[in-house]
Amino acid sequence: MKVSRETPNAVWNPWEWLTHQQRAQLEQYAQLLQALGQRHNLVSRETLPEVRRRHLLHCLALAWRAFPPGSVVVDWGTGGGLPAIPLAIAFPDITVHAVDAVQKKVLAVRTMARRLGLNNVQVHHARAEAWSGAVHYSVSRAAAPLAKLWQWHRRVARPHAPVPGAWQAGVLTFKGGDLTAELAALERLDAQVTVSLIPLAALLGDSYFADKYLVHLTPEPSLDA
Q1: Is the pLDDT at 45 greater than 70, yes or no?
Q2: What class of enzyme is it (predicted)?
Q3: Is residue 223 marked as binding?
Q4: Structural domain contains residue 199
Q5: Which terminus has fewer CB within 10 Å in the chain: N or C?
Q6: Is residue 131 part of a domain?
Q7: pLDDT 10s digits, 135-192
């Protein structure tokens, strides 16, 4: 298993990359998340006052590279629609499947997606192990250990030709702290995985994200590729 650290050359501001309409949609989503979050326990209550920084900015790190038009993405354990809804807003030409086992969260995310006019979001009440679909990418916000995420992804993954400037098909997940044990478990499961650790504090220029990473898991290229 190959593990590398990919440090960005410069701070990247996702808000500047978005259109006025996308920023307006994200603001509406922030308001919905604050209104529904406390009622349905969608996110930690103490984070609601800083929802734009601690949730939206966090998730928008996924837009550092592109998801090609036509891509299909699954968000495992979407909770309050994170990162599914920000990702669907940032990339309107992709399809995002938001999966969660908690029905009240599924209903809340479905309501928010409808109010935001997001036709590219499909919300599913299911356990990750049981959801059936076919995707190019899996995303998650620390919903499960790396090995479990890789298992879920492999079961539903389909090939996607590489596109310059876009993420390689695989798993993109947000993690924090010491990942030694998770990486060791991942290697025991499948040694043919490439792991890239992208430090979020360096990418987003915000010390809140110190010791937090965007982790990219991809299959190692075959020798006959």
Answers
A1: no
A2: transferase
A3: no
A4: no
A5: C
A6: yes
A7: 999 999 978 999 999 999 999 999 889 999 999 999 999 999 999 999 999 999 999 9
